[in-house]
Amino acid sequence: MSKITVRENLADIFCLEDIKPPIDSFLSGKYKRSFAFKTIKDRLPVILTQIIDTLSREKDNITQKYGAGAVEDIKQVIGGISKLKNELVTNKPLLLIEGSKYAFDNDASVWNNKIEQLQKAKKETQTWYNTIWLICECYMYRRVIQELEHTNYLKTYDPFLIQKKESYFQSLKSMNFVSEHIMKLINTSSNFNTEELQNNFITFLRLSLWGNRCDLSLSSGELISQEHNPLNLLESLNNKLLIDDSRKVWNLLDICCLDKMDNIIDIVLDNAAYELFTDLCLAAYLITFKFAKKIRFYVKQYPWFISDVTTNDFEWLIESMVKAENSDIHTFGSYCEKCYKNNIWTIEKESFWTEPFDYSEMKNENPTLYNKLAEAKLVIFKGDLNYRKLLGDINWKYTTEFEDALRGFKPTNLVSLRTLKADLCVGLQSEKIKSLDENEPDWMITGKYGLIQSYIH
C-alpha cells in the first residue's frame, strides 16, 4: 500500500490532475475541473467551520438543555472537528471510524471494511482527494457523528437543527399557499375526473421536485427563503425540466388504482423543512385519492448533509404545522398528524442510507432492505445524493440510459426527483447536452435544472 505525500499547500497535493473526470470513471476530488474538487476544497471546510461556530455560539443553550457537563463535551467536539478539518484540507488518509456502543447497527465496522476494501482495490491509501467523492463526502458527516457519539451528553445533539428550523420559518408564506390548495383538493376528493386527477398528481410531483432546490448542503448552510406561491411558478419551470417521466409514473399509478390493489409507495427523503413539506403534500394526494394505501418515509439515522431528514425533523415539522397560526397550515398539519398516528404514513429508519454504499450494492449488502423496497409499487428517490447513489457516482456518458446506469438495482418501479447539484447525469439527448454546455457551462451544479426520471418495468 503506497501512501501519497501531502503538504499544507494545496498545490503540493500530488494526486491532483488538472482535467475533468474521465468518462466511466468515479467522480473524485483529484480532478481539479470537477465539482467534487470544489466541494472538498471550498464547501466542506466551510460546513465544518459552521459546526464549530454553532457549538461556540450556542454553548449556553446547549448546556441548559443537556446539562452543565456538556461544557466539556462541547470543547471535546470542537477539538475533534478542528482536527477533522485539518485532515481534510491537508488531504490526510481517511482514518478508520472509531466504534461506539451507541452507534446505530455497528456501522463503524461497515465503514472501516469499505475503506480497507477500496485501499486494496485501488492499491493506494484512500485520502480526501483521491477517493470516490461519494465516499469522501459521506465520510465527513460520519466523522462528525463520531465526535458526538464519544461524548457523555451530546450523543443525540444535531449540529444542523437550528438551520433546519430557520429554513422552515422562512418558508411559511409558500406553505400557506400550498396548504390551502391541498386542503381544497382533499375536501372535494370525489369531484374529479381522470384528467383532473392526472393534472393534480403531476402538479404535486413537480412541486416535490422543485422543493429539492432548498438544499442547505449546496449553499453550505446558507438559508434559502421561500416566500412566493410555488404553484404559480411551476409552469415557468417546465423549460428547466430536462427529463419528465411524470406521465409514465401517472400511468403506473392509474392502472394500480383501477386494479384496487393495496399499494405501498416508498419515499426515500432528502431535505427537511420546505422540501419535506412538499413531500407530505404529494403523500397526502396519493393517500386521499387512493393511489396508495400506505406511504413509508425513509429518513437518515444521523444528522446528514446539513438538511437531510431525521425522525426528529419529520415529527417536528408535523408538530409545528399543527401549532401554526395560519389556519390552512394548521389544518393540513392535522391531516398529516392523523396519517402518521394511524400508521398510514410510517417512518422507516435503516442504517444503509448512511453507509458507504451505492444502491447497486444494496442487494448484496442489505438484502432485507432490498426486499422491503420490492414490496412497494413505486419508490420515489428524492434529491441529488440519492441520484448519485443510484448512478454510483460514476461519470457516465450523459446519453446513457437510466436503466443501464442503475447497474441491476431494480427492486421495483422507481422514480428520481432531483434538481441537479452534482456533475453527473444520464438519459439526455446529445443536442440538449450541446446546448446546455454552450449556454450554461455550470448547468449540472446550480440546482437550476431538474429531472423526473423513472424506471418502470
Report on the architecture of this protein:
With 457 residues, the protein is an alpha/beta fold. The protein has 18 helices and seven strands. Strands 1-7-6-5-2-3-4 form a seven-stranded mixed beta sheet. Strand 2, helix 11 and strand 3 form a beta-alpha-beta unit. Helix 1 (35-57) runs antiparallel to helix 3 and helix 3 packs antiparallel against helix 5 (133-149). Residues 1-8 and 219-224 have low confidence and may be disordered.
Low-confidence parts, pLDDT < 50 over ≥5 residues?
A: 1-8, 219-224
Q: Give the number of DSSP strands.
A: 7
Strand and helix order: HHHHHHHHHEHEHEHHEHHEHHEHE
How much of the residues is beta strand, in percent?
5-15%
Helix content: 40-55%
How many helices in DSSP terms? Answer: 18
Integer-rounded radius of gyration: 22 Å
Strand order in the largest sheet: 1-7-6-5-2-3-4
The averaged pLDDT comes out at 93
Which structural class fits the helix and strand makeup? alpha/beta
Largest sheet: 7 strands, mixed
Which terms would index this structure?
8% strand, disordered N terminus, 457 residues, 18 helices, 7-stranded mixed sheet, alpha/beta
Q: What does this entry show, briefly?
A:
With 457 residues, the chain is α/β, with parallel strands linked by helices. Helix content is 48%, strand content 8%.
Chart the SSEs and their pairings:
Layout: H1 35-57, H2 59-66, H3 70-89, H4 107-122, H5 133-149, H6 161-169, H7 172-187, H8 194-211, H9 230-233, E1 241-244, H10 246-258, E2 264-268, H11 274-288, E3 294-299, H12 311-322, H13 327-341, E4 345-349, H14 362-365, H15 367-374, E5 378-382, H16 383-391, H17 402-405, E6 413-419, H18 430-439, E7 450-455
Parallel strand pairs: 1-7, 2-3, 2-5, 3-4, 5-6
Antiparallel strand pairs: 6-7
Helix pairs in contact: 1-3, 3-5, 7-11, 7-13, 8-10, 8-11, 12-13
